[in-house]
Specification:
Number of strands: 16
Oligomer: single chain
Radius of gyration: 28 Å
Strand content: 5-15%
Helix content: 40-55%
Amino acid sequence: MKNTDLKESILQAIPIESYIGRYVKLTKAGKYLKGLCPFHSEKTPSFTVTPEIGKYKCFGCGQSGDVFSFTMAMEGIGFREAMELLANYAGIDPGQSRQLSETQKKQEQLFALNQAAGVVYQQLLHTGAGLQYRQYLADRQIQERSASHFQLGAAPDAWDTLASRFSEQQELLLELGLLRRSPKDAQKVYDFFRDRIIFPILDYKGRTTGFGGRIVTSSPDRKDAKYINSQDSLVFQKGQLLYGLFENLKSIRQERQIWFTEGYLDVIGLWQAGFELACAPLGTAIRSSHLDLAARYADQVVAIFDGDPAGQKAALKFSALLLNFPRLQGRVLVLPPGMDAFDLSIQCSNAQLQQILAMQLDVDRFFVMETLFPGLGLQTMQAVRSDNPLEKAAAALAFYQDPKSAQVTGTQSGKRQALNRFYGSLADIGNPLDQKMLLDQAAAILALDGQELQREFLQQAHRDRSPEPMDRRPKEIKAQAHFGTGQALQSERSPEPGAGIFATPSAMGDWQRKIARMEQHLLLELVLDHRLAATAAQRLNQRAWIDISSEYLWRFLEGKLMQGEVWQAADLRLFDLPSANLEAFIRILADHQARYGPNAGDEELDEKLQRVQDMFFSLEELDIKKVMADLEARQHVADSVSRLAIVQERNQLIRQLDELKTARKQAPQR
């Protein structure tokens, strides 16, 4: 079945009002149906569905389309995935629409095997071998309905639980990491998960990607970690997953909010108490990839960290990360000392828990206070004589919210130390406007003049700036930022092969259009020869793209590279790009492949590598010139202090531009 035929079959099989009605409560209004828009907060319905033509439109936020665009927006997925999801919902085999690649076939095998292993673990939990694991869950007050909802299981203290049951699929189990080879005899295998409670980890589609395991007994002789996860595989990358997302997805979509907790039990405990918004990273700190995933379904995130120094430190890192991620609003919940979210869910009444969970603090306020006075919030809670967690949480919230609360350390030396800490952390925030607002908060807290702090911070930033990098932020923060000028640019004098082929948004400024055009031509080079893409991967992954379509296309190509596949012109038709750009790429790629085959000779490859290197140099030059143009525009409306800082920054950029030109001349020619 062709994609067009499949699309028509889906549209005929699924009435748009019944599908959207799963997410939005719709009421009749003439020939329309109306409801509250799922894409933005509103009190008066402005979201309409017209069954007659199979369309929806919100007159509040402007979102509109058919059942495919609705699914793409709600799920945060592309058209191809939306088609598969809707085909499954309609009972149509989506596999008929395309031939599965070898990689996709392998993925389906691995998902199915993980699912089968999960069923074995669940069954074992309810046998005699699972008695001690059921007892552990009961002692922790985890109810049977919770264990069932999260599909908890048990891996007994045996070496061949899975090895004996899936003897014909041992190679796949080894690939998933569920089996390991014996270091003494490579012919022998053994189970990776042993003597543990098992937590299946699902993706947003509900497929079992892997498992987490927790020990239930500890002894001085036991050296293994309390928690372990499946190894990374074709279907499991722990930095791209959130535990509990699928189980709580319906509520997260409805509330447009997601809570980050630290562990699996936190998620389960909150769900058990009636709060169905929690997710947890898989033993890692919260990363930008987790925020990307959250932004598909939510507008706001709340981080709930343990009430100890490590938890406070993690909360501060999260705050800095989120301040560099403008697509999400964020808040932090400061828990009482020695408690985590699971403890609260078990020890507090529902009314108490609801009150504590409402004591959230904006990330900007938390960032400022914890940077100026690290650990003081935790000390404030520890000073409360009562053991009531509600009173401790209330004391911390009062401390953080009162602009004068930190002035107890208001000596000159104390303020100077606080400011030095604050300036160092503030440099990691990429948006100048955000920096100014945070400086204003710090000034109010310390009873200092905000303009003086702004001037001192700018002077220090320019004095400490290295002459080489444009962006002082640490690598981790730079990778997480979703705005800024980036570091890789290009010159208007550089050759632009195929100029005029691609479309750029009319809303772009002149410099943005130049950069976007060069990004498109760079991507064209990579599309035409996959060998170039492999050499450019590291630099492209560090880029803050101007042309979003080019970034999306690069992610598509990168995924193919990682799976060892070479793309064809037909592959691009499955990718969502503006039609003008898409047709240009497909036409040029198809013509190139017909003329030269999959690869060119080595001599031509050297020429291409040289051209790509020149493009990167040119992109770096364009980026610098764009920043200089932005500074010039700001200089006309700046006051005398800011104008001085702008001149200093412009001089720094001129030096960087000269260094770039020198490096370009000295670069080895291929």
